[in-house]
Structure formats: C-alpha cells, structure tokens
Amino acid sequence: MAAFDELYSRYWEMLFDIACKKLHDKDDAKDIVHDLFLQLWNNRASLHVYKSFSGFLFISLKNKIIDKQRLVVSRQKKNTEIGQKQSEVYDAVNEQLNYNELNTFLNQQIDLLPEKMREIYLLSREEGLSINQIADRLLLSPQTVKNQISNALKFLRKKVVQHMMTILF
C-alpha cells in the first residue's frame, strides 16, 4: 500500500494536468486519473511494466482520454439523432393536426353549401362519380352538374384561403 501511495503522490498531479489540458474539464480529468489509479490498484497482481512506469501511466492515460472522447462523441451523436427523431415526430404530429383541423373546417364549409350543390359535390368528390354519372343519377344535365361542382369548388377555395389567412396572420 505504501508503494501505491508513493506512486499516487508522485504522478497524480502530472496526470491530472495532462488530462485537464486534453479534456478541458477538471471533473472529467479527476475521474479519469482516479479510474487509472483504481485500475492500477485492481490489476496490481497481474501488472507487468517492461520499460518505464511513467511511460506506462502516460499511455494508459492517453487511452482513457481517447475512450472518454469517443464516449462524448457517441453521446452527442445519439442526442442529435434523438433530437432529430423528436423533431420528425413533432412535425408529423403537427402536420396531422393541421390536416385534421383543415379537414374539419372543410367539412363545416361543405355543410354550408346549398343542398343540391352539396349533394353533387359529395357525389363527385367522395363517391368519385363522373359528371355524366351524377347527371344520370340526379336527372340533371351534365352542364348543370359541371356548374354546380365549379361553384362549390370556388366557394370552398375562397373559404379555405380566408381560413388560412386568419391562421397565418
């Protein structure tokens, strides 16, 4: 234990200074140097230093600093990915809410159409019938059906534009 205390006293400050310069964070530097000495203590029985002990410590410190920097980069990358995914989810939810709001508004405006115009519009847009099919079903001329659809679309476009202007401004 006395030998360990001697090594700790001799090298701790030097290793700490190097770690501070590389990491720019005193707490991280303390943690890394502490971990290095803890690892040294835990592996003391199997530790074989062939050249200089200080060289061994510096290389071990360098490796710990590299590991720490990799961990920081990895966490930053994960945080960035999480932030991007949260943003994508937010955008998708927001888009869905906007779509639902606009769809609700549009349905309210369709309900305001005159009865025959609404019926023709719904047959055209919701049931997908052609002008001729609607004319045959309702016993109207194709031109009347075409005019009713055109008038309904003009009305709805105008209302949607007004609604969007109130939302934007």
Describe the model.
With 169 residues, the protein is mostly helical. The chain has two domains: 2-82, Rna Polymerase Sigma Factor, Chain: A, CATH 1.10.1740; 113-168, Arc Repressor Mutant, subunit A (Orthogonal Bundle), CATH 1.10.10. 86% of the residues lie in helices and 0% in strands. It contains six helices and no strands. The model has no long low-confidence stretch (mean pLDDT 89).
SSE diagram, text form:
Layout: H1 2-23, H2 26-42, H3 53-112, H4 115-125, H5 131-138, H6 142-168
Helix pairs in contact: 1-2, 1-3, 2-3, 3-6, 4-6, 5-6
Organism: Solitalea canadensis (strain ATCC 29591 / DSM 3403 / JCM 21819 / LMG 8368 / NBRC 15130 / NCIMB 12057 / USAM 9D)
Pfam family, one: Sigma70_r2
GO molecular function, one term: sigma factor activity
